[in-house]
Amino acid sequence: MISQCKQAARHALQGKWLFMAGAVIVLTFITAIPELISPATYNDEESLTGLQQTMDFATIILSALLLPLSVGWLWLTLSLTRTSRISMKTLFKPFTVMFWKSIWVSILTGLFIFLWSLLLIVPGIIKTISYSFTMYILHDRPELSAMQAITESRKMINGYKTQAFLLFLSFLGWFLLGIITLGLGFLFIYPYYSVSYAQFYEEVKRKEYGGDIEYMA
């Protein structure tokens, strides 16, 4: 299944590599805004001024408000697996169709993964994989609540977690190349991995449900 997903991703990306690289730049720039406007690092011994505390709080809030953008990236990669007609608007679609839900589900999954990671790193990895279909499921079944989508993700990927992990491992060489190129390689590696994982979701959905899940256009 892994080689099939990667091959399907390369096929889907034909003629779309530059578009997806541009989407990565937009995603990276916007999500970096809170860090760019955050106060300069200060010593622990230095007391925080009221302005610095306000800026820290504002940075946290802004970071949370931008969480739908990461959901939009997953929706964009999912859209690319299904149709050659993609738009940058998809990157921002969660802001208009499920703004608060996408924030809430992102916070919930992050919290659950953090709590499981406190036990040991392995449970944290397992739960990261278990929740990895959540945003795709919300795209296909927007009527579900955050907890319902998380639960459905756990059920759907059950029996496929090893393959999901092996898919990630198959990209380690590419990730190393991205580091060697000072991050520039990730403009193309990140779309390749993301579309491969979206295709993995499609394959699991097909095997488990025969692909019979309605999804938004």
Automatic annotation (TrEMBL):
Keywords attached to this entry: Membrane, Transmembrane, Transmembrane helix
Transmembrane regions: 17-37, 57-81, 102-126, 164-190
Pfam families for this protein: DUF975
Keyword presence, Transmembrane helix: yes
InterPro entries the UniProt entry points to: DUF975 (IPR010380)
Domain of life according to the entry: Bacteria
Residues spanning the signal sequence: none
Annotated protein name in UniProt: DUF975 family protein
